[in-house]
Design a protein that fits this description.
Blueprint lengths: L4 E9 L6 H6 L5 E8 L6 H7 L3 E4 L5 H11 L4 E4 L4 E3 L1 H10 L9 E8 L13 E9 L3 E3 L8 E3 L5 E3 L4 E3 L5 H21 L8 H16 L7 H34 L1
Helix pairs in contact: 5-7, 6-7
């Protein structure tokens, strides 16, 4: 296309040298600017981003929601488009978004995109791939990212019109099993901290049921069984991740009770 859309695209990053070039390249040429907000990368993330003509901004990490809110403030356009460093805009999704601006501003206030899982051994998602829906293209006057350390969802204003787009993003969240375990440990620490700040307690019966329910949900409802042995591994890891959050919350609760007895 000759003229880029009046859309600012932004990506938050930390040590993403192996993935970010795919994300930035999928945005080049059709958005008016690409901004990478980095939280202290020690690899080649900055060089890669700048070589691909992205604007590189450094900002101290304070959580997912706050980092993306900061990224929003760096954007000049009214319409914003967010992808993560492990995601890629497909040509079909690009064309669908371009069509929304054919007659000026899009008809709705925000658009949700399906992020389809692509596993390490795949070039593209399987026909049965799982994933999640996220509001990624939105009018900044009608919504912005929620102020949360754990969650990074766009909170649209009451009455805002949201529509789902047909074409997906490709989401490569898993580098390796080792990476998945480290990520689960990091995320669950943040989740438990967030639960404590909000005064939420998870019922203890979930210690018994969280893993098997999460495993069955992933393996059957999300069709991980179609991936063979890899699907089984993925379902087990997902169940472990869900169980770990509950276990850590229980551990923190016991520690708090012990401290209260000694004070």
């Amino acid at each position: 296309m000759e003229t880029p859309l009046p859309v600012s695209a932004f990506i938050i990053a930390h040590n993403e040298e192996d993935r970010i070039s795919r994300a930035i390249s999928s945005l080049r040429g059709w958005v008016s600017e690409i901004i990478v907000v980095d939280s202290g990368s020690t690899d080649n993330t900055r060089r890669i981003a700048e070589d691909l003509s992205a604007r590189f901004v450094e900002n101290e990490w304070r959580g997912f929601g706050e980092q993306k809110r900061f990224a929003e403030s760096m954007c000049r356009e009214r319409w914003l488009f967010n992808i993560d460093a492990d995601e890629e805009v497909t040509p079909q999704l690009r064309d669908e978004i371009v069509a929304l601006f054919a007659n000026g501003h899009p008809a709705c206030d925000g658009y949700a995109v399906f992020a389809a899982d692509v596993f390490p051994h795949e070039d593209k998602p399987a026909a049965w791939a799982g994933g999640k829906w996220f509001t990624r293209l939105y009018d900044r006057e009608k919504g912005r990212f929620a102020d949360s350390t754990v969650h990074d969802n766009v909170a649209m204003r009451q009455g805002a019109r949201i529509r789902r787009l047909k074409a997906p993003l490709h989401h490569r969240s898993i580098r390796s099993i080792d990476f998945t375990v480290k990520k689960a440990n990091y995320y669950t620490n943040m989740q438990v901290e967030d639960l404590q700040k909000r005064g939420r307690r998870l019922p203890r019966w979930r210690l018994l049921l969280e893993f098997p329910v999460a495993f069955l949900k992933s393996y059957f409802l999300r069709r991980a069984f179609l991936y063979g042995f890899w699907g089984f591994i993925h379902a087990v890891n997902y169940g472990f991740f869900r169980h770990l959050r509950v276990a850590k919350q229980y551990e923190a609760e016991i520690a708090r009770q012990k401290q209260n007895k000694t004070t």
